[in-house]
Amino acid sequence: MKIVRESVSRAELQLLADNSLGDYVKAVVDIDRGLMAIDGDLHADEERLLLEDGSEQTSLWDINLSPGREGETMVEYDSMINVRPYHGNRSRGVDSPETRARVAAVVRRLVKS
Q1: Residue in 32, 39, 93 with CA at minimum distance from that of residue 57
Q2: I need a labelling partner for 54 at 20 to 30 A (CA). Which of 44, 45, 47, 74 fits?
Q3: What is the tally of structural domains in the chain?
Q4: Alpha carbon distance 50, 20 (integer Å)
Q5: Along the chain (113 residues), what's the average pLDDT of each consecutive run of 10 residues?
Q6: Run of H or E residues at 19
Q7: What residues make up the domain containing 34?
Q8: Which one, of 23, 19, 16, lies nearest residue 37 by Cα?
Q9: SS3 of 95, please?
């Protein structure tokens, strides 16, 4: 498990996926700091890592990255931890189009071909 501050390659993500879940890697994105944690057994583990590093809970969104997919289909917005009715998010996804766009922008900037 690590924090990605600069970049990670699709090839590295694929190796991580191959060594754990097969098709995807769990990730947590901090939309305010523009970084993400990857390769935890649970999204909660990655969230804890980012919180210990100074992230705020309200900035964190849990996703799955499928390095074999292209464009926006690489990101899957599905995690129980995303259910936050008190912040207006009532699903396992990311309901706000603005927040989804911010998550996608961080992923585009950090994941390189």
Answers
A1: 32
A2: 74
A3: 1
A4: 21
A5: 97 94 93 97 96 97 95 92 92 96 97 92
A6: none
A7: 2-112
A8: 16
A9: coil
For residues 84-112, b (16+ Cβ closer than 10 Å) or e, as one string?
Answer: eeeeebeeebbeeeebbebbbebbeebbe
For 69, residues 6+ apart whose C-beta sits below 8 A from its C-beta are: none
CA 15 to chain CA centroid, Å, is 17
Q: Which two tokens stand for residue 50?
A: 């980012």
Q: Which two tokens stand for residue 74?
A: 């690489």
Our measurement of the distance from residue 76's CA atom to the centroid of its chain's CA atoms, rounded to an integer in Å, reads 9
- 36-51: b (≥16 Cβ within 10 Å) or e: bbbbbeebeebbebbe
Cα distances (angstroms) measured from residue 38 to each of 5, 11, 18, 55: 11, 14, 14, 15
